[in-house]
Amino acid sequence: MGRVVVVTGIPGTGKTTVCNELLKLAQGAGRKITAINFGTVMVELSKKDDKSLHRDKLRKSSLSFQRDLQLEAAKMISQKAGDTEGDVIVDTHMSIKTLQGYWAGLPLPVLKLLNPDVFVLVEAEPREVLSRRFRDTTRKRDKVLESEVAEEFLFSRLMAVACSVLTGASVKIVKNPSGKQSEAAKKILKLLW
Asked: Could you tell me the pTM of the whole model?
C-alpha cells in the first residue's frame, strides 16, 4: 500500500479539479495514484439506505446521521486504500459548515481508519471562491459573504492542524488561482516523489 494523501479545501477552491489534474499528471509520469471522493462515497451510501441525498443536502442532515454515514464511508475508503497499489488521494473537506456550526470533516474515528500521511489544503482567494461558487450551477451552495469564506478557511486550517497533531501527518497549503490547477497539481505530485 502507498501513502494516503488527504486533499481538502472549502467548497469553491477547486480541490476536485486539482485532484483530477493530479491524476492526469501522475499517469503521464507513470505513477500509480487513485483518487476517492469522500462525499461521493457518502452519497452512494445514502442511496443504499434509501435516503438518497444530494451532496449539498447531506450537511443539512442531522449530525448523528452525518456522523454514521461518515464513519461507514471511512471504513469503505480505508478498505479500498488497503487494496490499492500506489498512493491514494482522499478528496474531502477538513471542516463542514452545518446548521449546527462547523463540524470536523475528519474526526478521530475517521482519522484512525484512514491513517493519512499528509494533508493538503487547496486554497484560493476568498473573492475567487465566491465567483466559482456562483458559476457552479451543478451545486446548491449557500450564499455567503467574503468574510464568511475567510472564516471557512480559518476553520479548515485549524482542523488541519488538529488532525496533524493527532496523526503526525504533515500539512501543506497549495494555492489554486484561476487557470492554475495544473501548477497546483504539480505541487501535490512533487510531495509524492
From this structure: 0.89
What is d(CA 105, CA 156) in angstroms, rounded to the nearest whole number?
9
Q: In a 10 Å sphere around its CB, with 0-12 CB exposed, 13-18 middle and 19+ buried, how is residue 147 labelled?
A: exposed
Taking the C-alpha atoms of residue 111 and residue 4, their distance in angstroms, rounded to an integer, is 11
Phi, psi (5° rounding) for residue 173? Answer: -100, 130
How many whole angstroms separate alpha carbon 16 and alpha carbon 9?
9
Estimate to the nearest angstrom the gap between the alpha carbon of 35 and the chain centroid: 11
Instruction: Let me know: does 66 contact 12? Beta carbons within 8 Å.
Output: no
Q: Which residues pair with 88 in a beta bridge?
A: 4, 34
| Rounded percentage of the chain residues whose pLDDT exceeds 70 | 91
8 secondary structure, DSSP code: E
Average of pLDDT values for 89-113? 92
Report the sign of the C-alpha dihedral through residues 43, 97, 192, 125, in that order: positive
Domains annotated for the chain, with CATH where assigned, are 4-191 (3.40.50.300)
Contact by Cβ (8 Å): 43, 22 = no
CA distance 99 to 122: 24
pLDDT tens string 136-176: 777 676 677 889 999 999 999 999 999 999 999 999 999 99
**Cell, residue 30:** 507513470
